[in-house]
């Protein structure tokens, strides 16, 4: 049995290591899909915010090998 579909929203604060330590609001979204009993895939978008030193955002894709949790069938 596959793990189905999951959507996750994340929010937080980005801290930059500097003497002034400016920060910014950060957020991300993730979609996870179970393809088979032991294989999941994830697509995500992450935005680490805009500070005086940098602006970072981007997409990621992953494939997961997984085992069932608590002996789920």
How is the largest sheet built, in terms of strand order?
1-2-3-4
Note poorly predicted spans: none
Number of folding domains?
Answer: 1
Mean pLDDT: 86
Please indicate the percent range of residues in DSSP E strands (runs of 2 or more).
Answer: over 45%
Q: Largest sheet, if any?
A: 4 strands, antiparallel
- The global form is elongated
Describe this structure in words.
The chain has 73 residues and is mostly beta strands. Helix content is 0%, strand content 66%. It has a four-stranded antiparallel sheet with strand order 1-2-3-4, with no helix packed on it. A hairpin with a 7-residue loop joins strand 1 and strand 2.
Which SSEs are present, and which pair or pack?
Blueprint: E1 5-15, E2 23-36, E3 39-50, E4 55-65
Condensed summary:
The protein has strands at 5-15, 23-36, 39-50, 55-65. It has 73 residues and is mainly β.
List keywords for this structure.
66% strand; mainly beta; elongated; single chain; 0% helix; four-stranded antiparallel β-sheet; 73 residues
């Amino acid at each position: 049995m596959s793990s189905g579909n999951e959507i996750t929203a994340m929010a937080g604060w980005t801290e930059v290591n500097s003497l002034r330590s400016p920060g910014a609001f950060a957020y991300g979204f993730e979609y996870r899909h179970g393809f088979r009993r032991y294989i999941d895939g994830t697509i995500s978008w992450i935005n680490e915010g805009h500070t005086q030193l940098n602006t970072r955002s981007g997409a990621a894709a992953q494939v997961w090998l997984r085992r069932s949790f608590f002996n789920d069938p």
